């Protein structure tokens, strides 16, 4: 396995395999990533660098910016947690049980990918508004589910679900039913089998799903703005603030907020990736 | 712990995988369930474990009816062909699993669990590997971890499903001998499933030969090899040849001609039957006037200390091939004719 090779020379270039084209494919990958991802992002940072240090800090410490970032990252985090719980359950049902309409359920999971986000946002806003179908019911029990951060979380849960289901599902399919049977013969009950045997084995995939749903949630714009209410300091998300700044022609401020979002997202994804690399090295598997 | 299986029947989607199987396993016995794939041997093992529920019939552990007990309640040790180790746990955690999932009241203290784990690791000769993860072990080591894990709960019966099936030939041989010693040391009632007859004959106290959801024969290695009680067992265990014959007044005839073989007293007196014999249990007949089976050599091959000849005893119109062992100095060039007579044989009525 790769563990021994990795241990002996972690920082050396990987030895080319029998299949030729290592140099070519690596070169292509780097050029492609540069063109598609790095150059636009570098342009962003470059543009924000036109601000002086004091101006930059001024924009960052502006309470409106701070609150927008808090709302964006906070709601994305909560939505990703919700998606992890329910996404794993949905994946479990699709993988483990045969029931009529299973294929349809499987296909429905992908709909949030396909639907224009604005359409999703309008639909959700209509449903969860105080006079909407679901909003009315929630209003009775005193929950306001639209035009506040709760609404943002609802939109992000909708958008993020497929990321969790689709990353967990293939790994779940690989779990041999013998593993569960082994746990049962050793005396473990259903609860212990799920929480001590199955879920720890799925942890790397769940973490990937969480990271994807979270990253998507931080950057989501279209579906959120319809249901959020967009009240500054309360339910205004950072991407919206960027758009507002652009409309005011203050490009420097827009890029500064974008840069800090980029830095925060990158740091979080990097940490998650490191955790995964660690668990893969340790268990020799993962997502 | 004695295990007895009574009139067990198991159907999968109305298709019977096991018909009316009864079997008594004595305490401390090492027993092999042997059969081709689809014979129901794994189903029987899984029924004993409680991983499947029988359609009909009952399973007793000692005096207690365990038919309706769950897997967890049966307290059995089960070893899977592909180990089924928990790969996110270290070797030590894998072995300790069965103890740590016990309810708080019955769970041994941590130090006691640690002691038991190191004891078991020593028993399976893997001391020093407790911190490793399963994917850092070889196949043979993984299977021994799986065995130690199953033994940790002090099972009443140890059940092994093709335990050596996924291992290479050399490791399989070593582990086979090791399992026999392990069994002799611990004295657990052990049932293992295999399709490898060599493994079953070498390892088991008794062999249960199964075919098409039924038990064909239960007996020691000598019983099933030397005294097979059905055409299936005769042809499944070891090499054999079968010849359709008719018996007239106790004398065995092949296509009308006597072959110098008499049906044993009390056996079939007349009628159609099948004659079974093993390649080594024949004598070449040199006297051209004595009755015997006669065949033309199609091919012959040298096999270590013997020579095996593939004979056509049917003739060009209706060929019938049998393999026999011939002396190394016998004339066995292709196309030559050889006359022989089975010395030890068995007749089964058609």
UniProtKB/TrEMBL annotation, chain A:
A single Gene Ontology MF term assigned here is: ABC-type sulfate transporter activity
Transmembrane helix listed as a keyword: yes
Listed transmembrane segments: 21-46, 71-95, 107-129, 141-165, 197-215, 251-275
State the Pfam families in the record.
Answer: BPD_transp_1 (PF00528)
The coiled-coil segments of this chain are none
Gene Ontology cellular component terms for the protein in this record: plasma membrane
- Is Membrane one of the keywords? yes
Location(s) in or outside the cell: Cell membrane
Keywords, A to Z, come to:
Membrane, Sulfate transport, Transmembrane, Transmembrane helix, Transport
Kindly give the PROSITE patterns that the UniProt entry links to this protein.
ABC_TM1
* Broad class of where this protein is predominantly found: membrane
- Tell me the membrane topology, using the record's own terms: Multi-pass membrane protein
Explain the purpose of this protein.
Part of the ABC transporter complex CysAWTP (TC 3.A.1.6.1) involved in sulfate/thiosulfate import. Probably responsible for the translocation of the substrate across the membrane.
Family to which the UniProt record says this protein belongs: Belongs to the binding-protein-dependent transport system permease family. CysTW subfamily.
Indicate the quaternary assembly.
Answer: The complex is composed of two ATP-binding proteins (CysA), two transmembrane proteins (CysT and CysW) and a solute-binding protein (CysP).
The name of this protein is Sulfate transport system permease protein CysT
Where does this protein come from, organism-wise? Shinella sumterensis
Q: Which gene encodes it?
A: cysT
């Amino acid at each position: 396995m790769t563990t021994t090779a990795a241990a002996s020379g972690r920082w050396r270039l990987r030895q080319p395999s029998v299949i030729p084209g290592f140099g070519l494919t690596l070169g292509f990958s780097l050029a492609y990533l540069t063109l598609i991802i790095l150059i636009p992002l570098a342009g962003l940072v470059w543009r924000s660098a036109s601000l002086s240090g004091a101006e930059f800090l001024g924009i960052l410490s502006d309470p409106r910016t701070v609150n927008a970032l808090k709302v964006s990252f906070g709601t994305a985090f909560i939505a990703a947690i919700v998606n992890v719980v329910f996404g794993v359950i949905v994946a479990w049902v699709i993988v483990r049980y045969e029931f009529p309409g299973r294929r349809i359920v499987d296909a429905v999971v992908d709909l949030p990918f396909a639907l224009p986000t604005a359409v999703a946002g309008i639909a959700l806003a209509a449903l969860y508004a105080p006079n909407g179908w679901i909003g009315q019911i929630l209003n009775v029990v005193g929950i306001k589910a639209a035009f506040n951060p709760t609404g943002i979380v609802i939109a992000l849960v909708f958008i993020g679900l497929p990321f969790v289901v689709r990353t967990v599902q293939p790994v779940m399919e690989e779990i041999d039913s013998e593993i569960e049977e082994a746990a049962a013969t050793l005396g473990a009950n259903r609860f212990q089998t799920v929480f001590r045997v199955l879920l720890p084995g799925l942890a790397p995939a769940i973490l990937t799903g969480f990271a994807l749903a979270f990253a998507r949630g931080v950057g989501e714009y279209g579906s959120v703005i319809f249901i959020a209410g967009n009240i500054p300091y309360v339910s205004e998300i950072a991407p919206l603030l960027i758009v507002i700044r652009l409309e005011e022609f203050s490009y420097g401020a827009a890029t500064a907020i974008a840069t800090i979002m980029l830095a925060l997202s990158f740091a979080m994804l990097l940490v998650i990736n490191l955790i995964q690399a660690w668990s893969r090295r340790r268990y020799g598997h993962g997502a | 712990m004695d295990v007895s299986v009574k009139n067990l029947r198991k159907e999968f989607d109305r298709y019977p995988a096991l018909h009316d199987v009864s079997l008594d396993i004595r305490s401390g016995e090492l027993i092999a369930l042997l059969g081709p794939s689809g014979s129901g041997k794994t189903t029987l093992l899984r029924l004993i474990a409680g991983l499947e529920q029988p359609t009909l019939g009952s399973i007793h552990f000692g005096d207690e009816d365990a038919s309706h007990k769950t897997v967890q309640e049966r307290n059995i040790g089960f070893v899977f062909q592909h180990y089924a180790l928990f790969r996110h746990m270290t070797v030590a955690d894998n072995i300790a699993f069965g103890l740590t999932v016990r309810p708080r009241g019955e769970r041994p203290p941590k130090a006691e669990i640690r002691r038991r784990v190191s004891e078991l690791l020593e028993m399976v000769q893997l001391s020093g590997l407790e911190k490793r993860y399963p994917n850092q072990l070889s196949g043979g080591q993984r299977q021994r971890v799986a065995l130690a894990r199953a033994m940790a709960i002090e099972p009443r019966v140890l059940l092994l499903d093709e335990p050596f099936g996924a291992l290479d030939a050399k490791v399989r041989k070593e582990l086979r001998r090791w399992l026999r010693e392990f069994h002799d040391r611990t004295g657990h009632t052990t049932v293992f499933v295999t399709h490898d007859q060599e493994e079953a004959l070498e390892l088991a106290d008794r062999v249960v030969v199964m075919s098409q959801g039924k038990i064909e024969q239960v007996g020691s290695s000598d019983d099933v090899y030397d005294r097979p009680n059905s055409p299936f067992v005769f042809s499944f265990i070891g090499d054999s040849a079968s010849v359709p014959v008719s018996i007239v007044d106790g004398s065995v005839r092949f296509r009308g001609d006597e072959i110098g073989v008499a049906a044993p007293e009390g056996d079939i007196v007349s009628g159609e039957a099948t004659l079974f014999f093993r390649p080594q249990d024949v004598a070449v007949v040199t006297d051209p006037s004595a009755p015997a089976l006669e065949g033309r050599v199609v091919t012959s091959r040298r096999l270590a200390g013997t020579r095996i000849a593939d004979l056509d005893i049917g003739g060009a119109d209706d060929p019938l091939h049998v393999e026999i062992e011939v002396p190394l100095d016998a004339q066995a060039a292709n196309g030559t004719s050889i006359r022989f007579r089975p010395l030890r044989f068995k007749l089964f009525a058609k």
